[in-house]
Specification:
GO terms for molecular function: exonuclease activity. About 0% of the residues lie in helices and about 15% in strands. By secondary structure, it is mostly beta strands. Bound molecules: zinc ion (ZN) (2 copies).
């Protein structure tokens, strides 16, 4: 079972990730390592904060 759609952020086709928080389908580029989209990520930016909740 695979979810494929259009990235909610950049509108790129072939997005296969689903945000764990808002449920939006996003591409791998806009999917954070924590399972949320970069739009929901607390520190959506260039520098991730390791060990931070
Ligand atoms: Zn994207
Ligand atoms: Zn999200």
């Amino acid at each position: 079972m695979s979810v494929t759609g259009v990235c909610s952020i950049c509108r790129a086709p072939g997005a296969q990730r689903v945000c764990d928080r808002c449920g939006s389908v996003v591409c791998d580029t806009h999917h954070d390592a924590r399972g949320v989209c970069t739009d929901c990520a607390p520190d959506a930016g260039d520098h991730p904060a390791p060990g931070r909740r």
